[in-house]
Write a structure and sequence with these properties.
Order of helices and strands: EHEEEEE
Helix content: under 10%
Structural class: mainly beta
Shape: elongated
Largest sheet: 6 strands, mixed
Length: about 110
């Protein structure tokens, strides 16, 4: 997967091959996320004055060829108003599939 992206992290799958996930048949997808300036790191004293936001996300995909692809993510957004950094873990059929570190530059 790409490490550097020029798009937002939300509502996308970071660890799945594009063509493997495509289908002409039925599919189901769901995305949920929580973005806040006060999730985890802002509770630490030396991080409390930073201007970034944190996002926790959950994505789900079902296709006939990919059963139960689940992705969990955590990202720091608007770091210096220039970039985002995210870590994502994926599971397929309830088994570990992979981990990705992503960088997004806001141009």
């Amino acid at each position: 997967p790409l490490i550097f992206v020029i798009n937002v992290f939300q509502n996308s799958y970071h660890l799945i091959d594009y063509y493997r996930a495509s289908t002409n048949d039925m599919y189901f997808q769901a995305h949920a996320g929580l973005t806040s300036p006060f999730l985890l790191l802002k509770l630490l004293p030396w991080m409390s004055e930073r201007l970034w936001n944190e996002t926790v996300s959950l994505s789900y995909l079902y296709t006939p060829s990919i059963n139960n692809h689940i992705q969990l993510g955590y990202s720091l957004n608007e770091i210096g108003f220039l970039m985002d950094v995210g870590v994502y873990m994926a599971f397929e059929n309830w088994r570990y599939y992979g981990t990705a570190l992503k960088f997004n530059f806001r141009f």
